[in-house]
Amino acid sequence: MSTAPARRVRLRQALIVLIIVALLLMGLVLLLNQSRTASRPLTTAPIINPNLFPSAGLLPSPGPDLGFRVKVTELGINLPVVEGDGWTVALYKAAHYPGMKLPGQGGRSMLYAHAQAGMFGPLLHPGGKVGQHVEVDRAGLQPLRYTITEFFSDWPPSDIRYLQPGDHEELILLTCTSFDPNGPRILAVAEPVR
Question: What does the alpha-carbon distance between residue 188 and residue 129 come to, in Å, rounded to a whole number?
Fold first, then answer.
């Protein structure tokens, strides 16, 4: 006759064997499932369209440095300004939109940069707002000071009114809200401090 303690030991051993077998079966199922998914081609699109850049693998190169820095101190933005092409922009730089006036020339100018940390990202999060101060430092000249008078967090890229010449000094800051080239933009309109 088996005693109660011996039965408990056999029951415990059987339970341990059952757990080990279950774990082995789960591992086998995971292994088979992983090999099936690894053999399938990826069906998602790349984050950045490789056809945007003429030379595969090369990032856009910045235009010439304009000797300016754009600053929004309330948001920690402080970037050198380069000449842009209207589409691409180098990392950790702001670009001047081609064909528009430069800041301080008495018309509308536009600067754009990526919506990432260290660039124009703070316009997106925590977010720009009316009343914030923008400064453009120019080598050897007095800094230009502006105040944001209008802020749009959902500007449609098809609305190009701010790409038209302006009749007075005005600075536009532009950035994107996502990786979608057709997605809305963030647009801040800044007027000179008088």
Answer: 8
Assigned token pair, 143: 């800094």
Looking at the DSSP bridge assignments, the partners of residue 137 are 69
pTM value is 0.68
Place of tokens 């209008």: 150
Q: Using one digit for the tens of pLDDT, what is the confidence trace for 69-112? A: 999 999 999 999 999 988 888 889 999 999 999 999 999 999 99
Cα dihedral 136→139→140→142 (10° resolution): 0
If DSSP codes are grouped into helix, strand and coil, which group holds residue 153?
strand
pLDDT tens, position by position, 47-72: 344 444 444 444 555 688 899 999 99
- Cα separation, 110 vs 102, in Å, equals 8
List the structure tokens of 178: 């996502």
Q: How far apart are CA 156 and CA 194, in angstroms?
A: 30
- 64 by Cβ neighbours in 10 Å (0-12 / 13-18 / 19+) ranks as exposed
Distances (CA, A) of 88 to 91, 93, 98, 175: 10, 11, 11, 11
Q: Are the beta carbons of 110 and 100 closer than 8 angstroms?
A: yes
Count the residues in the chain: 194
* Class of 62-192 in CATH: mainly beta
DSSP state of 125: I
